[in-house]
Amino acid sequence: MEEIQSQSDNYRSSSSSASSPASRVPSSNFFYLRKPGSVRQPISFEDSPEWEDTDNDVRVEEGGDSINVAITPTSPSLSKLNSGSLPSPPLPERAVVARKIAGASVVWKDLTVTIKGKRKYSDKVVKSSSGYALPGTMTVIMGPAKSGKSTLLRAIAGRLHHSDRMYGEIFVNGAKSRMRYGTYGFVERETTLIGSLTVREYLYYSALLQLPGFFCQKKSVVEDAIHAMSLSDYANKLIGGHCYFKGLPSGERRRISIARELVMRPHVLFIDEPLYHLDSVSTLLMMVTLKKLASTGCTLIFTIYQSSTEVFGLFDRICLLSNGNTLFFGETLACLQHFSNAGFPCPIMQSPSDHFLRAINTDFDRIIAMCKNWQDDHGDFSSVNMDTAVAIHTLEATYKSSTDAAAVETMILRLTEREGPLLKSKGKAGNATRVAVLTWRSLLVMSREWKYYWLRLILYMLLTLCIGTVFSGLRHSLSSVVQVKVTSAITWTS
């Protein structure tokens, strides 16, 4: 007990020294002063003072074309789950083992995206962004609203609008090539699900419409997707919503959207805002599920606006954007060090993502102006003098001259100097198969959604009887036709 108490005292003393008034403002103030100065040590917010575990690091061997996973000692991680320090429990009997996925390395270099204004392509949404994503890792693109997160994600996936223009290079396994159909999956921010189908039926019809091959093979793919997204408890439940009183929660619906892309068994999975409209519990469950999916070898790239401390600890790499500019790319802990070096250390009692967005979100300038007006009248909020434009410029300049940017350039060079195996498309389902599947699915949906389809059928039948009675006395002569027309006109006008 004395040894543990001494370690705890040492940890508190080091934390208090790092958060002294000379280096940072107490965490009770939301707005705080920027204190330029010397390089600071990274600030850890873990409860345990000792972290002597190892982490999985993906590296490229000099003499080979493939990317291998090596166990190398790393810096203290943000989470025991991320660092791998928790022992793996033994698998129970009849447990389903996750299928391994052959991921792919994705590199984007000097990527610039412009959108068409009123006259010409002048608005740069993404400006000279560079980064990479490796198999078995989660790479997150973070930033405030309208910072270019979704545009960068679409540019890497090759799903930009036809009017947008992209400049730069994208490499997949070291080769300049666009990802083919079936080699990657893209999950939109908002997706539409068929509420009258169960989760298993919805994924099964999705596999029939996308994958070639026999039906028995597609059933195994669907079961793998259900297991990968932890949907086994909801597999036989209706998705619901729309014409049903109650549907599945938003977290499960979001995981169903991701599972729909997993039936293709993609090498790379792109997700636009996986935590969109999710509460804290669903958010943590979603990220733990995605972390488990990444452990199978899949390359995950997704955007995110904000996250809690626990969720932030699950990320492998972070790409921080603001107004299209890349303020940082690298490991999550290195991002904390980067902000500390630039003069914006993270307070101990504040989430890292909250701290990042507070420093680079220009929308806070309006709050600062409001607080300054309140300060003139009441004398409070004396610490509100942090200009986000100055913070963005300082962070960008610090990153360009840092060793993190040099390390990214070196890694990009190593990943692109040799070409790896090309990603091959798995093919598509035939047109006849798609027509048959869509017809059968439509009949099944119509048989269940009686409020829309059966009532509509009854109304059409009544309308048919009404129109049929108008022409019931029609004869073959011209005069009878004219008489029926006059009678029908009088009927409709009256």
UniProtKB/TrEMBL annotation:
Report the transmembrane regions from the record: 453-474
Span list, region Disordered: 1-26
Q: Which SUPFAM superfamilies match?
A: P-loop containing nucleoside triphosphate hydrolases
Cite the entry's keywords alphabetically. Answer: ATP-binding, Membrane, Nucleotide-binding, Transmembrane, Transmembrane helix, Transport
GO molecular function (one) = ATP hydrolysis activity
Kindly give the InterPro entries that the UniProt entry links to this protein.
Answer: AAA+_ATPase, ABC_transporter-like_ATP-bd, P-loop_NTPase, Plant_ABCG
| Domain ABC transporter residue range list | 106-348
Q: Tell me which domain of life the UniProt entry assigns to the organism this sequence originates from.
A: Eukaryota
**Of which family is this protein a member?**
Belongs to the ABC transporter superfamily. ABCG family. Eye pigment precursor importer (TC 3.A.1.204) subfamily.
Q: What is this protein called?
A: ABC TRANSPORTER G FAMILY MEMBER 11
